[in-house]
C-alpha cells in the first residue's frame, strides 16, 4: 500500500516542482539595462545617420533660402510632420472600427469514442431510449459570422470624430513648431550675417590690441609713462576688448546654430548675403485692434483649445449614447461535416436588444463630468486669449523699441566713423599715438557690431509680431514642395511682412461656429493696402489695447 502511494505521489511532486520553477521564472520580469557597448553602438549608428542625412548647400545663402531649408530639412519640422501623419492615419483607423464584425471560423473535432447518451423519462424516471449517438467522432466545422451592435457603432462614431479633431490639433501644433523655428532662423541668420562681415576684421584688431596692451603694461612697469594715464588707457582698452570677445563668441555660435537649423555640417563654410546699413524694413504703423483680432483668430494655441472644446463635447454625446439600449444584429452561415445531420449547411439571422439599467444611474454623473471638462476647456481658452493679447502688445512694443535702438545705433556708428577718420588723420600727422588710434578703431568696430545687431533685432522683432498673431509665413504642408518653389513662397511672404500686410479675416467672421477656420497666409489672399511708413514718434503711435481682464505689463527698455 505504501509503495502504491509513493508511486502515485511522484508525478504529483514532479508537477509541483515544475510549476514552482515556471512561477519563479515568470516572476523575473525586470528588463536588463542597456549595456555601455550597446549605447556606444547606438551612438555611432546615430552619428553615421546624421552625417549621411546632411544636405549640402552651394552658393549664397539668404534669409528666404535659410527658412526654406529649415522647413524642408530640419528634424523638428520632420518630427511634427510625422506626428501629423500619425494622427491622420489614426482617423482612418477610427472610422474602420465602426464597421461590423465579420469573423470566419473553422475547426476539426476528434474524440476517441462516440459521444453516446441515453434518455430518461421525466415522469417515470425510467430509461426511454437505449444509448445512441448523433455525432461522428471526427468531423469538421466552418462558419462565417456577421455581427453589428448599434450602441457600439454610435460610440465609435463619436470616437472617430474626436480623432478627426485630434488630427487638426496636431496640424495646429505643427504650425506652432514652424513659428518657433522661424524665430530661431531669423535671429540666427542675421547674427551669422554680421559675423560673416565683421569677424575677419575683428581678429587682426584684437591681436594688435593685445600687443598694445602688453606694451603699455611694460611701459607702466618701467615708469616710462604716467601711472594714472596708463592705467586709464589700459582700463578703457580692456573694456573694449572684453566686449569684442563676447560679441565674437556670440557671432561664432550663430554660424554653428544656423548650420544646425538648415541641416548642413557645422564645419561647412556658409557664404551669406552681406548685410547693408539700410537692411532694416521701414517703420510700420500697424493697427493694434486689427492685430488683436487676428491673433485671437489665428493663434495655434487658441485654435487647439477650440478643437479641444469640440473633442470634449463628443464625450457628452458618447455618455448619452451609452444610456440607450443596445440593439445587435447577428447573422451567420454555418457548415458541419457530421454525416448524421440532415442539413449540413444552414444560415442564422437574429436580433438582440440589451439595456444596462445601471447606466441610468451612472450616465447622468458621467455627463456632468464631461460637461465640467467642457467648461474648463472654455475657461482655459479665455485665459490663453488674455495671455495672447498681452503678448501681442508686448511684441509690438518690442518692435518699436528695436526701431529706436537701430536709429540710435546708426547715429552712434556714424559718430564713431567720424572719430576714426579724425584719429587716423591725427595719427598720420603724429598728433595721436598708435595705441589711441587702435583703441578708437576698436570702439568703431563695437559701434558697427551694435548697429548690425540692432538691425537683426528689428527683423527678429517684426517676425515676432507676426508670429504672436499666428500669421503663417508658409502653409504647414509647404515642405512637401521642391526647395526652389518653397524659397520663392518664403521670399514673397517676407516681402509682405516687411510691408505690413495682414491676412483678410472676412471669411473668419462669416463662418459658422462648427466650420474650422483655416489659417491664412500672407500672400495667399488679397491683402489690404499696406499702411504708409511713418517715422517713429511715440506720441503718434496708436496706444496698444489689452483685454478687459488683462494686467497691463510694461516691457523692459
**Largest sheet properties:** 4 strands, antiparallel
Average pLDDT figure: 79
Uncertain stretches: 1-9, 507-518, 521-557
Secondary structure class reads: alpha+beta
Q: What is the radius of gyration computed over CA atoms, rounded to a whole number of angstroms?
A: 39 Å
**What is the fold named in CATH at topology level?**
Outer membrane efflux proteins (OEP)
Strand order of the largest sheet: 2-5-7-8
CATH class: Mainly Alpha
Strand % is: 5-15%
| Number of helices, counting only DSSP H or I runs of 4 residues or more | 12
What would CATH call the homologous superfamily?
A: Outer membrane efflux proteins (OEP)
Topology order in helix (H) and strand (E) letters: HHEHHEEEEHHEHHEEHHHH
Helix content: 55-70%
The geometry reads as elongated
Provide the number of structural domains.
Answer: 1
Amino acid at each position: 500500500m505504501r509503495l502504491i502511494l509513493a508511486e502515485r505521489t511522484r508525478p504529483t511532486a514532479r508537477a509541483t516542482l515544475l510549476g514552482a520553477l515556471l512561477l519563479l521564472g515568470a516572476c523575473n520580469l525586470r528588463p536588463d539595462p542597456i549595456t555601455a557597448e550597446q549605447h556606444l553602438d547606438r551612438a555611432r549608428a546615430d552619428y553615421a545617420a546624421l552625417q549621411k542625412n546632411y544636405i549640402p548647400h552651394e552658393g549664397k545663402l539668404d534669409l528666404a533660402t535659410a527658412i526654406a531649408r529649415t522647413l524642408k530639412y530640419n528634424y523638428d519640422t520632420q518630427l511634427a510632420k510625422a506626428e501629423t501623419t500619425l494622427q491622420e492615419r489614426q482617423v482612418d483607423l477610427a472610422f474602420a472600427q465602426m464597421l461590423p464584425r465579420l469573423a470566419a471560423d473553422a475547426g476539426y473535432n476528434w474524440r476517441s469514442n462516440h459521444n453516446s447518451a441515453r434518455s430518461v423519462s421525466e415522469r417515470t424516471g425510467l430509461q426511454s431510449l437505449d444509448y445512441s449517438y448523433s455525432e461522428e467522432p471526427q468531423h469538421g466545422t466552418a462558419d462565417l459570422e456577421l455581427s453589428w451592435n448599434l450602441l457600439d457603432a454610435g460610440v465609435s462614431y463619436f470616437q472617430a470624430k474626436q480623432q478627426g479633431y485630434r488630427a487638426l490639433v496636431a496640424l495646429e501644433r505643427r504650425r506652432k513648431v514652424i513659428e518657433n523655428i522661424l524665430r530661431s532662423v531669423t535671429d540666427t541668420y542675421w547674427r551669422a550675417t554680421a559675423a560673416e562681415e565683421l569677424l575677419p576684421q575683428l581678429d587682426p584688431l584684437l591681436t594688435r590690441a593685445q600687443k598694445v596692451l602688453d606694451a603699455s603694461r611694460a611701459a607702466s612697469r618701467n615708469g616710462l609713462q604716467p601711472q594714472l594715464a596708463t592705467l586709464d588707457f589700459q582700463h578703457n582698452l580692456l573694456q573694449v576688448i572684453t566686449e569684442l570677445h563676447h560679441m565674437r563668441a556670440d557671432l561664432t555660435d550663430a554660424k554653428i546654430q544656423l548650420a544646425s537649423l538648415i541641416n548642413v555640417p557645422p564645419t561647412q563654410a556658409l557664404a551669406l548675403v552681406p548685410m547693408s546699413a539700410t537692411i532694416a524694413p521701414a517703420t510700420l504703423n500697424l493697427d493694434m485692434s486689427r492685430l488683436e483680432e487676428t491673433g485671437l483668430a489665428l493663434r495655434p494655441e487658441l485654435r487647439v483649445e477650440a478643437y479641444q472644446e469640440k473633442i470634449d463635447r463628443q464625450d457628452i454625446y458618447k455618455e448619452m449614447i451609452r444610456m440607450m439600449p443596445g440593439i445587435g444584429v447577428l447573422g451567420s452561415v454555418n457548415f458541419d461535416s457530421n454525416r448524421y445531420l440532415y442539413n449540413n449547411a444552414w444560415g442564422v439571422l437574429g436580433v438582440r436588444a440589451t439595456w444596462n439599467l445601471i447606466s441610468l444611474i451612472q450616465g447622468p454623473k458621467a455627463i456632468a463630468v464631461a460637461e465640467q471638462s467642457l467648461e474648463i476647456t472654455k475657461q482655459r481658452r479665455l485665459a490663453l486669449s488674455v495671455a495672447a493679447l498681452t503678448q501681442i502688445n508686448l511684441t509690438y512694443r518690442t518692435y518699436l523699441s528695436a526701431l529706436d535702438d537701430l536709429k540710435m545705433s546708426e547715429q552712434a556708428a556714424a559718430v564713431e566713423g567720424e572719430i576714426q577718420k579724425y584719429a587716423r588723420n591725427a595719427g598720420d600727422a603724429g598728433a595721436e599715438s598708435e595705441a589711441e588710434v587702435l583703441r578708437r578703431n576698436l570702439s568703431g568696430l563695437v559701434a558697427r557690431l551694435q548697429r548690425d545687431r540692432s538691425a537683426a533685432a528689428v527683423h527678429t522683432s517684426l517676425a515676432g509680431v507676426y508670429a504672436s498673431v499666428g500669421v503663417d509665413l508658409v502653409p504647414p504642408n509647404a515642405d512637401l514642395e521642391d526647395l526652389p518653389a518653397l524659397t520663392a513662397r518664403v521670399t514673397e511672404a517676407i516681402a509682405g511682412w516687411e510691408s505690413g500686410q495682414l491676412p483678410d479675416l472676412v471669411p473668419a467672421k462669416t463662418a459658422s461656429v462648427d466650420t474650422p477656420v483655416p489659417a491664412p497666409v500672407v500672400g495667399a489672399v488679397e491683402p489690404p493696402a499696406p499702411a504708409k511708413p511713418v517715422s517713429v514718434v511715440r506720441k503718434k503711435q496708436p496706444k496698444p489695447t489689452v483685454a478687459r481682464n488683462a494686467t497691463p505689463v510694461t516691457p523692459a527698455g
